[in-house]
Design goal:
- It is a single chain.
- By secondary structure, this protein is mainly beta.
- It contains no helices and 11 strands.
- A hairpin with a 1-residue loop joins strand 9 and strand 10.
- The N and C termini lie far apart (about 40 Å).
């Protein structure tokens, strides 16, 4: 069983920064794709950023403000969030996809990010 544990959320002011971390119980380079999703109240879960084979992709709403990073030494995935806006408020989820005969999707427990003055 693969475990993903998120940390680093909390309260930030508009224009501020936060860094989310996701520690995985498996070598991160065995995953085909990893990413961060978020879900705001009353909204569907949406993809924020993903990374696969070193290529990163971002939702238009966070391009230029968020950066997804991998850390093989610590089996961790990060989301550096700068220039935060109130509309970034959501529960953020770490995701990892593993393809062995079939596709396995693993999720973290979710972590709250609130952007407010």
């Amino acid at each position: 069983q693969v475990q993903l544990v998120e940390s680093g959320g909390g309260l930030a002011q508009p224009g501020g920064s936060l860094r989310l971390s996701c520690t995985m119980s498996r070598n991160i380079f065995t995953f085909n794709k990893m990413g961060w999703y978020r879900q705001a109240p009353g909204q569907q879960r949406e993809l924020v950023a993903s990374i696969s084979s070193g290529d990163a992709n971002y939702a238009d709403s966070v391009k230029g403000r968020f950066t997804i990073l991998r850390d093989g030494a610590n089996n961790a995935l990060y989301l550096q969030m700068n220039s935060l806006k109130p509309e970034d408020t959501a529960v953020y989820y770490c995701n990892a996809e593993l393809q062995i005969a079939t596709t396995w999707n693993y999720w973290g427990q979710g972590i709250q990010v609130t952007v407010s003055s």
